[in-house]
Design brief:
393 residues, alpha/beta, TIM Barrel, Lyase, Ornithine Decarboxylase, Chain A, domain 1, 3 domains, nine-stranded mixed sheet, 23% strand
């Protein structure tokens, strides 16, 4: 696996240019590569953490507690107690039972009420498990007042891989209504968290049906300007994960086996590679993501193929019915956009080791990061990051 630090650097830069009012709180669950996290911390990015381990990891990088949002609406008792000890106070909730737990273990918390948002065009929806319905908002705000807890804002997550950017506008309008309801109850909110769901793919033929980041940024900016005009008091944050890391990681996987089978009266070439769904391709099962194979040398003689993982489990199927030029054992298949929910979800099932990550960067990016973060990060990067081969001459 290769991590391109340049890609991460450009993604953060692009975000700040296209959504200047929205601060990044990177969704750490998406990819926990330590050099990646160190780079983001140096770029003054905030972090969305979901557990004690994630919080402790981020704080160990020198990030201050106020740059963390504990974005898990149902927190374990020991995790919540540890967050309180570490002064991580901004956190989400969506039920009164969570409020009671927070009152007991972290009474100084600064709370974000997570709303139930259903993106009709999304391919991965969050609404079944997370968020409160609009009708519950008044009762939950009153419950927070009853428990003498501070509610400072609202959050939502639109879902992933949406096709209609205006669904962000609808969700932001819902947040405005919640701010207004809170104000009538004497609660002054000053944080708007617009969650995640931002695409991180390389704009290409592979994603012709999906909405680009630029389209979403345009819709978000317009909605924010309409419902939350600049007044200096409001802090707007988002929790991008895929956007930051998806295209920054590329997997080079070797073919270790090859067979021919007839499926539906048509020949299918089976390739077995040294990865699988218990490793970096868990995404294909849980998120129904179809891997992106880097274009190979042009060939008019493509054949129906399927790509399988190396484990002994018969469900270890990575891709089926893909058209590829005929390949051979020992050849390499390169998969692009492998940064999101890959290394973070990888297991050692069947005793296969996790794939190692090689980090690369250009001189220009390393120089820019040193200017921003100083010599300490520079020493880390020079120890962990390889100079791109085109410049290493």
């Amino acid at each position: 696996m290769i991590l391109d630090i340049d890609d991460v650097f450009e993604k953060v830069k692009n975000w700040k240019e296209k959504m200047p009012r929205v601060d990044i709180y990177y969704a750490m669950k998406c990819n926990t590569d330590r050099v990646l996290l160190q780079t983001l911390a140096a770029l003054n990015v905030g972090f969305d953490c979901a557990s004690q381990f994630e919080i402790e990891t981020i704080l160990s990088l020198g990030v201050s507690a106020d740059r963390i949002v504990y974005a898990n609406t149902c927190k374990g008792f020991s995790h919540l107690r540890r967050a309180a000890d570490l002064k991580v106070e901004m956190m989400t909730f969506d039920s009164e039972s969570e409020l009671i737990k927070i009152k007991q273990l972290c009474p100084s918390a600064k709370l974000l009420l997570r709303l139930y948002v259903c993106a009709v065009s999304g391919k991965l929806r969050m609404n079944q498990k997370f968020g409160c319905d609009e009708s519950e908002v008044p009762c939950l705000l009153e419950a927070a007042l009853k428990h003498n807890l501070s509610v400072i804002g609202v959050s939502f997550h639109i879902g992933c891989r949406i096709q209609d950017p205006d669904e962000y506008a609808t969700a932001i309008a819902m947040c405005r209504q919640t701010f207004d309801i809170a104000e009538k109850k004497g609660i002054i909110m000053y944080v708007l968290d617009i969650g995640g769901g931002f695409p991180g793919f390389i704009i290409s033929r592979n994603h012709s049906t999906e909405t680009s980041f630029s389209d979403i940024a345009r819709a978000v900016n317009q909605a924010i300007e309409k419902h939350f005009p600049p007044d200096g008091a409001l802090k707007i944050i988002a929790e991008p994960g895929r956007y930051i890391v998806s295209s920054a990681f590329t997997l080079c996987s070797k073919i270790i086996g090859k067979k021919r089978r007839f499926v539906d009266n048509e020949e299918d070439i089976i390739y077995i590679i040294n990865e699988g769904v218990y490793g970096l391709f868990l995404n294909t099962i849980f998120h129904r993501v179809r891997p992106v194979i880097k274009e190979m040398s042009p060939s008019s003689n493509t054949k129906r193929s399927s790509i399988w993982g190396q484990s002994c489990d018969p469900i270890d199927l990575i891709m089926k019915k893909c058209m590829l030029p005929e390949l051979h054992v020992g050849d390499w298949i390169v998969f692009e956009e492998m940064g999101a929910y890959t290394t973070a979800c990888s297991t050692t099932f069947n005793g296969f080791e996790k794939t190692r990550v090689k980090r690369v960067a250009s001189r220009r990016t390393l120089s820019e990061l040193e200017k921003i973060a100083g010599s300490k990060l520079s020493q880390i990067l020079h120890a962990e990051v390889h100079l791109k081969e085109s410049e290493n001459k």
